[in-house]
Design brief:
alpha/beta, globular
Length: 114
């Protein structure tokens, strides 16, 4: 499964669209929680493609997704193992936002799809 988080761009074919970061974050948390509590359930989020600037959408800018995932990886047993399976793609045109999101990805040893 591939997730695309953007408040204005069209969603590429093969992706599931989220227009705000809060809904996407909750979806990732729900999928990860199921996989942690039921190891026989496959975690199938392969790619999360993130914009940065979300124009006041619920949940704020997409760096909030990465920051919350980082927090959960450090506080919830097994969460880090699940999240490390995701490849993050940054499709934002905000170079400072991309650099900030990339720093979180790199700091946590997560994968980035360029």
């Amino acid at each position: 499964m591939k997730l695309y988080v953007d408040d204005v761009r069209e969603c590429p074919e093969g992706y599931s669209l989220f227009r705000n970061s809060a809904e996407c974050l909750q979806f990732i948390i729900d999928c990860a929680t199921v996989s942690i509590n039921h190891p026989d359930e496959k975690f199938d989020i392969e790619v999360v493609s993130l914009d940065h600037d979300m124009g006041g959408a619920i949940g704020g800018d997409c760096i909030n997704i990465l920051n919350k995932l980082e927090y959960l990886c450090n506080t919830v047993e097994g969460f880090d193992e699940i999240i490390s399976k995701i490849k993050f793609h940054l499709h934002s045109s905000n170079p400072v936002g991309v650099a900030n999101m990339r720093a979180v990805i790199k700091k946590n040893g997560w994968k980035e799809k360029r």
